[in-house]
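Hallway conversation turned thread

IA: we were arguing at lunch whether anyone had actually written out Inducer of phenazine A end to end. Turns out nobody had. So, for the record, here is the sequence (343 residues) and right after it the structure tokens. Reply here if something looks off.
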Amino acid sequence: MKLRRYALTPQMEQYDDFDDRGETRYLPYLMYYHRSGYRSEVLNTDRLGFRVGHGARGHASVAGERPPGPVKLLVGSSTAFGIGATTDAATLSSRLWSRYAPSTPWLNFGGRSYSSAQELLLFVLHQHLLPPVEEIVILSGFNNLALARLPEHQQGEHGAFFFCGDYHAQMDALQTRHRKAKPGFGRRAQRRSPAPPDDAPVPPTPELIRRSVELTVRHLETWRKLASVTGARLSYVLQPLATWVRQEPAPQEAVLFKELDKMSRLGIFEDLFGDIVTPETGRAYAEALRTACEKQDVPFLDLNPVLAEATTPEDWLYVDRAHCTDHGYDTVARLLTDCLDLR
């Protein structure tokens, strides 16, 4: 039987193919990035995996063709990338370039499942491909908060990342294969301390917010220094999450969310992330980020109440709890333009 998800949002079948873990590109420094040279009616990527955007003067991508002159960047994780959009032209960067802020091409600098550390590193490693940058909008936030829930031994100095459990397991196995007894120390030298348990209690929500904001601010400070050198204007936007925007989903969203919970191998969404996806946590997180951004003199926008105010309970905004429909992305692009004065 065909999934309701594919009936209501047929483009998601293409995204599922695109996100096939068996086709993951594992990269130095970044850990992983999108499939390169991907072609479909729904989404297309250039030779390095950046999504192609469409706008007032043709199409463009970071490692592909683009009109001459300066550019603007939309940075972030999968929402910035545009998961859920029916075509490349319906993503946020494309809607900004084609309709709401068309004066300069917008490049899609989104990285699916990326943390703030990976978002920053993606720019650092690829800034040599860019012409002058006039504007940098970072649309992010949820991934850092979700990753803060992972066990302490997976956090490290720079925070956890998605699939880090796979990484640590493989590195431990590699280390074991290379380990040899050291002369003079006997068998005892081969013993290892047991790995910490992965089922340790999740820290309380205020601690998760503190961890997430601390990492975000650390990376935002580097963004600010890089932007100041080039003269680019920098803004930070807390992405709109379905459960932060409104408590009751639209009718189509309710069907999709219920089916996604049944499909999930990990469990029901609220059981997995219930402590961080409540409206109360969204507001507390936004205020902590706002305070941190003000200290760095970086404009901050919490899109959640703005999107809630601009829409009705019947507006179908989401294909899942993090990613938008075409209507949702178009609305967000308009609100970004108005609130950040993007032209």
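OS: looked through it. The chain has 14 helices and nine strands.
IA: good, adding that to the notes. Confidence is low (pLDDT under 50) at residues 185-194.
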